Amino acid sequence: MITMSEEIGHLSAALVSAQAEVDNAVKNATNPHFRSSYANLEAVLFTVKPILAKHDLSVVQFPGYEDGVCTLSTLVLHSSGQWLQSEAGAPLEKPTAWSVGSCVTYLRRYSLASITQIAQEDDDGSAASEPSNPKPTKQTKPTKKVAPKKPTAAESKKLLAERLSVLEAILEACEEHGGVDAKTLKLGSDIIKDGGPLERCEAAIKHLEREVGR
Known about the structure:
Elements: E1 2-4, H1 9-21, E2 29-31, E3 36-38, H2 41-54, E4 57-66, E5 69-78, E6 83-91, H3 97-116, H4 153-177, H5 182-194, H6 198-213
Antiparallel strand pairs: 1-6, 2-3, 4-5, 5-6
Helix pairs in contact: 2-3, 3-4, 4-5, 4-6, 5-6
């Protein structure tokens, strides 16, 4: 559903100008589940925020969750006070804190891309929804187990960025719906502010998942 202010003339003109300057976000992440590449939320934000600000536009997004459906309200604001709001949602088969956080990030990215007309060719929402009716695979002979390869520095940095994004989404959902004490929320916010480390970020995510699941 879309709602808007009584007048949107200034907002419309600004949005037209902004969209004319926006290039497609660089596909900087890979979805191992679907083996596809996509531009993550960070890349989309990096692409659109400066251009929106240049034309006196800003975007505010509010996540929510109710009856098995993850929701997101996206509000486009213009300095004139005019506004445009849209609602998006996606059902979750497994409503864990992690899947809600992943779905919120997914909806945030797609809503921003839709508003600014950034092409989104690939689907990275495997955490929110799994492919239905997977084809059976042929049985193969057991292979010799190989020790897991130690991630490179670049891979570790990428993983940390992704986990920090999940932690941020969980914190936003917790602040929106309550149920987690302020001290725990502050500890999570400090981890995001400090940029890790990965072990501390993972521990915070697991702790928040337990808190929300109580």
